[in-house]
Amino acid sequence: MESTQAVFPERYIALPSERKMELLRTMIRIRTFETKVEELFLNKKIPGFVHLYIGEEAIATGVMANLGKEDWITSTHRGHGHAIAKGAQTARMMAELFGRKTGYCKGKGGSMHIADFSVGMLGANGVVGGGFNIAVGAALSAQIRRTNQVAVCFFGDGASNRGTFHEALNLAAIWKLPVLFVNENNQYASTTPVSYGLSAQHVADRAKGYGIEGYTVDGNDVRQVYDAASYLIGRAREGKGPALLECLTYRVKGHYVGDPEKYRTREEVQKMVNERDPIKLFSKVLMEEGTLNDAGLAKLYAEAEEEILAAVAFAESSPYPEPEEALEDLFSFSPKEFPEVIA
Ligand SMILES: Cc1ncc(C[n+]2csc(CCOP(=O)(O)OP(=O)(O)O)c2C)c(N)n1
Ligand SMILES: [Mg+2]
């Protein structure tokens, strides 16, 4: 994987050690959640489809460390990591995956519909490229209301080939909206390698077509993601408009749990796991800095394991929704209550 030269002010380095440890903690919490979800899915405890974020944790973590609860994000079908890093509760997420009433969508949405408006997580999305226009709308609302909120739209390399990408970038650019488009270039869109599916060399190159800035960073290095996001989110907050940040990463697991993965070799995957694991890379950095030791690392894993086991216990002990509830909560408002909306 190529990594581009840092062009951003180096803010990671100035963070206090608690904040650096917090970055690692978030990455480990996401990894532990996802590892458990994979196991549960293979044991047929979780229905539907799940897409894992393993190997991509540095992106959600590095970006979200620059956002507050009042800021918004839109997510993808691979959204667990975004939700966790934005502050969603793992117990309610797990309950949703289990299809239980205590889940974020009362057990009726599953993995690809997890949302938590109370922390600014506007939703995972089963529609590839479905988040672009939601993020642009959120950013427009911030601009109109003159708040200093920012919206971040996470999307894949495959999603950058959708029409919604292009219309969203254009509108955000001409109206100078406070939105950051964060591309997670994990080298594949389902079975299609980016070397085949992308017309440009980099997703970031496409920014030029809309007159905005585009950058490529190593998405497996949380420090690079943090610095880039800090700068670009800061600019958006100051009214300087949108930008496109491409984070190069690698999807370590199949497209979905159960993917036969006929489109790549085991050797390719193993090399990335061995050499480019974002958690291993960052743990090493923190150890070299003297911020972390083996006991500290083991403690982070133990705490995450405890949290996720508690989430599973919560999910398993929660009831399923009743069949009579199937048609409830389908609309965000009742047309009877707001006749002017449908007039
Ligand atoms: C509009 C639309 N087209 C196709 C699909 C089927 N689909 C689900 S995920 C996916 C690939 C997405 O690739 P990418 O955007 O790179 O995200 P990644 O899975 O790599 O995170 C496709 C084609 C879909 N869900 N929605
Ligand atoms: Mg992809």
Characterize the structure shown.
This protein is of the alpha/beta class and 343 residues long. It contains twelve helices and seven strands. A five-stranded parallel sheet has the order 1-2-3-7-6, sandwiched between helices. The protein has a two-stranded antiparallel ribbon with strand order 4-5. Helix 1 packs across helix 2 (57-64) and helix 5 runs parallel beside helix 6 (163-174). The longest helix is centred in the N-terminal third of the chain and has 26 residues, at 17-42. The mean pLDDT is 95.
What labels describe this entry?
343 residues, globular, single chain, binds magnesium ion, Rossmann fold, 12 helices, 42% helix, alpha/beta
In short:
The protein is an alpha/beta fold.
